[in-house]
Amino acid sequence: QVRLVESGGGSVQSGGSLRLSCAASRYFVYMGWFRQAPGEEREEVATIDRSTTTYADSVKGRFTISRDRDIGKNTAYLQMNSLKPEDTAVYFCAADDTARSLMLLQRRVPAYWGQGTQVTVSS
User: Fold this and answer.
1) Backbone phi, then psi, for 86, in 5-degree steps?
2) How far apart are CA 85 and CA 101, in angstroms?
3) Strand order in the sheet with 4-7
4) Measured in whole angstroms, how far is the alpha carbon of residue 48 from the centre of its chain?
């Protein structure tokens, strides 16, 4: 059974930092972070497949996605610095066996999702 377990969310003041972790039950080619604020659509935040990363314009220069390369450790991280109130959302980890570029061609979202973790940034 595939599992994605997020951790690291919480409350922080504007300008602060948080690091989210996503522990997967197995290796995935693609891992990504999405977020959804109340009343808003889900937004892709950052993705990594093998060594290629992408970022939403709103987080470039502030967020960094990485993944643990050790054998048997299938964990992705999202380091979030200089947090702003507009970063407040539920953050979801996603994973797939296909690279992001192919998913875009297939017009689909990642197959596997975590339960989400709340990030709240106060001004």
Assistant:
1) -70, -5
2) 31
3) 4-7, 18-24, 75-80, 63-67
4) 9
